Amino acid sequence: MPDEMHRFGDDHLTATVSADGAELRGLRDAGGGEWLWQAGPEWPRHAPILFPIVGRLPGDVLRHDGRAHRLTQHGFARDRRFAWLRRDELGCALRLADDEATREAYPFAFTLEVEWAVAEGALSCAVTVSNPGQGPLPFLVGGHPAFAWPLPGAASAEGHGILFPGIEALSARRLKGGLVDAAEAIPLRNGFLPLDPALFEKDAIVLPDFPVRKLRYLAPGAALEMEWEGYPDFGLWSKPGAPFLCLEPWCGTAAPLGWDGEFMDRPGVTVLAPGHSRRFRWQVQPGRSPN
User: Fold this and answer.
1) Candidate CATH numbers 2.60.40.2470, 2.70.98.10, 3.30.360.10, 2.60.120.20; the one for domain 5-287
2) Per-residue pLDDT tens digits for 190-234
3) What is the C-alpha separation between 29 and 177, in angstroms, rounded?
4) So where are the chain's domains?
């Protein structure tokens, strides 16, 4: 396999990660079923790492100390080549640090480390943001993995849904021009959200301050369990009719519609003091559903 890719796994799962964006490119079970969206004309990515923003800023501009910096949707990490820190049969670790190019868009010192691992049939992604600089480090970070819809083992895209334990309705926000706009309550059936392409006609479903840290993506014959820690927000997204569903743990969301101020003061931004780090993690476990 070329140096920019690494494949690893156990008897249950095999994952492939690219140095470009530290991005997951494949997730196959022992039977050969592919659980990860394999990119395509509807959306050319698989599972990008979102950093140093999630979503958009007004006019794609980051304002800091009287200067305007161009920073486009979801930040630049997904388009940068990471350095390998470790590669072995059960996982890998990669690192991205600030340089002259990143500081043009985002004038802060940082390191971003991503660790992928397979264990006992589950895949985990741990992201650590560190501040090696002399001043505060403001950032947002998130995962954006896209999973197959229909899931492997399901006969069709019909009958899929998400089970949110203990939740009666989703307190969602919608996007307008890529920015967070109006609130919307999405009712559930005993915690279950039936999936329909029409759900995404108004773009992503943004779930700020989401009260749970796990879910099950279900279909007749298949199930994907997901859990996360460190991420207070969540997003769901697909393109109507496209065969994928993104399950997105976030720390921060797109900027609120009508807000246009200093990035350090932006709602939802996490600020790290010099010498400090913060770790975020999500995990998925594919399997079969009895229904």
Assistant:
1) 2.70.98.10
2) 999 999 999 999 999 999 999 999 999 999 989 999 999 999 999
3) 38
4) 5-287
